[in-house]
Write a structure and sequence with these properties.
The chain is an alpha/beta fold. The chain contains 6 helices and 11 strands.
Length: 226
């Protein structure tokens, strides 16, 4: 059995700027271990978010390939990629984007309706809130929750449909140190309890030791992988 759920080969991404091409990523080849927490580290502008968008089928590379569970997602049509994101992938962003008039429970349930989850939606939503330590806050509106609690609801929403991979782009960027650490420790637990593979970006050096694997980017180039 392949221990890597995602592998990339020679990923490059260029953007046209005036009269020349700017290469945001150059020759990126990485392996993401299945059921583990992988961190993409780098300063703003390093290319980590661009890489995450390509790994998550939100963007196409200019060159190179991305294999997810043995399938070349760079060769898929946009409709196939949309279906892949709906069924197999979850996303968490720095901006939680919860629906303000819905409770924490309703926000998670709503996400399950969008993905056409076939099980008991309320039961699964409560299970996910319990996984992130918020079952006691299920009936609270986003405005009644702290920033860290809102991010945890966003995580519950992202894992509710049981994706195989969860992508989290700077999920701790707007949080204080304690809340940010709590979020990453929740990610650790989710890899064990849900078996989900998690890939997150961060520039926070203090979070590196919590990851199973770290890739560091600088100027669109991979400078370290361990």
């Amino acid at each position: 059995m392949n221990d890597y759920i995602i592998t990339t080969s020679g990923i490059g991404r260029s953007f046209r700027t005036q009269d020349e091409d700017f290469w945001a990523l150059k020759n990126i080849s990485i392996e993401v271990p299945q059921g583990k927490l992988t961190i993409l580290r780098g300063r703003s502008g390093s290319g980590k978010t661009t890489l995450m968008n390509i790994l998550g089928a939100l963007d196409y590379p200019t060159e190179g390939t991305v294999m997810l569970e043995g399938k070349d997602i760079t060769a898929m049509s946009e409709n196939e990629r949309t279906m892949l994101r709906r069924t197999d992938i979850g996303f968490v962003f720095q901006s939680v984007a919860l629906i303000p008039m819905m409770t924490a429970l309703e926000n998670v349930e709503f996400a399950l309706r969008l993905t056409k989850y076939e099980g008991d939606k309320r039961e699964r939503a409560m299970e996910c809130l319990h996984l992130v330590g918020l079952s006691a806050r299920a009936d609270h509106l986003p405005a009644e929750l702290s920033g860290g609690e809102q991010q945890r609801v966003a995580i519950a929403r992202a894992i509710a449909h049981k994706p195989v991979v969860l992508f989290a782009d700077e999920p701790t960027g707007a949080l204080d140190t304690v809340s940010g650490l709590t979020v990453v420790k929740i990610f650790q637990e989710l890899t064990k309890q849900e078996g989900v593979t998690i890939v997150m970006t961060t520039h926070d050096v203090g979070l590196m030791e919590l990851a199973d694997r770290v890739y560091e980017l600088e100027g669109g180039v991979l400078i370290n992988g361990e």
